[in-house]
Design a protein that fits this description.
With 295 residues, the chain is α/β, with parallel strands linked by helices. The protein has two domains: 134 residues, Enolase-like, domain 1 (2-Layer Sandwich); 138 residues, Alpha-Beta Barrel (TIM Barrel). Helices cover 37% and strands 16% of the residues. Helix 3 packs antiparallel against helix 4.
């Protein structure tokens, strides 16, 4: 059964509770876009449960009775969502997806939460127009897309070199496999060792300890030894390092032919720091997912 079918069945079959945010007043000036006369009428948070699985779902309902759905990351945010809905959603044109995104961004709404709104709006717009969303986004470009696996061994095996090699060997059996891991974050979660040096860098970010850098090297060495050349390897940096720390980490990784390291330094503080890393290592640098909106 497809992932899409599973999600639809989940929504149909399992409802544990609903927190409705309906009845909030309309905006005086609805956002403009293609206008079919529809307006956002209500926003709800659903807690759905089937067997032992629980899922939080955002539901946006239009004045025409059509609803769009999206996974929602955090029920603790539910009280604040009422204010967000009142200020930015209720009464707005649901087709003004980009304008609503930018409005939420300027208001400081967390990226994960405005992403849920974005997904739900596109779902709603697709249902309103009775068109698949990919057509509304410009039409098909390819019939297949490569995805990566975010993986690591079980917690008790995270320092076991053979466990990382075994992961590489298993992934090598899957044609076109890509694996992404953030050894900085894994090492930090051990909780019983020094992860970062105390040095303060004017441009921000941190320097990993020698032990942290050695752990990064071990992870990608063992993945490469296990996978051979059949798997692409990605380091998910999460913007944690200074340029100096990122370079110190990347240099020992160069023999393992990484696909890229993702945002080794903060992507929103200084592109100059990212450029320093790119100039100092042969490991390709990926960035951009935190540069959002029309501004």
């Amino acid at each position: 059964m497809s992932h899409l079918t599973n999600r639809r069945n989940f929504l149909k079959q399992a409802t544990l509770g609903t927190g409705a945010l309906a009845g909030l007043p309309s905006l005086a000036q609805p956002l403009q876009a293609e206008d079919l006369g529809s307006r956002i009428k209500a926003v709800e948070l659903l807690v759905l449960q089937q067997n032992k699985e629980q899922r939080r779902v955002l539901k946006i309902i239009s004045s025409s009775g059509v609803a769009g759905y999206a996974d929602f990351p955090d029920l603790d945010y539910a009280p604040a969502l009422g204010g967000v809905a009142k200020e930015h959603l209720i009464g707005a044109n649901p087709f003004a997806v980009e304008a609503i995104w930018s409005s939420l961004r300027r208001a400081g709404v967390l990226c994960s939460h405005r992403t849920a709104v974005d997904y739900a709006l596109w779902d709603l717009v697709g249902r309103e127009t009775r068109r698949p969303v990919y057509e509304l986004l410009g039409g098909p470009v390819r019939d297949r897309i490569r995805i990566y696996y975010y993986g690591k061994p079980p917690k008790a095996q995270l320092e076991n070199e053979e466990a990382w090699r075994s992961l590489g060997r298993n992934l090598a059996q899957k044609p076109g496999a890509v694996v992404k891991v953030d050894p900085w974050l894994v090492y930090e979660r051990f909780g019983d060792r020094k992860v970062w040096e105390d040095t303060v860098y004017e441009a921000g970010g941190r320097m990993p300890t020698e032990e942290n850098i050695a752990y990064n090297e071990m992870v990608f060495r063992c993945l490469r030894e296990g996978a051979g050349d059949k798997v692409d390897l990605i380091h998910g940096g999460h913007g944690q390092c200074s340029a100096e720390g990122a370079i110190a980490t990347c240099k020992p990784l160069e023999p393992y032919d990484l696909f890229w390291i993702e945002e080794p330094t903060s992507p929103i503080s200084s592109m100059d720091e990212m450029a320093k890393v790119a100039a100092a290592t042969t490991v390709p640098i990926a960035t951009g997912e935190n540069l959002q909106g029309l501004e």
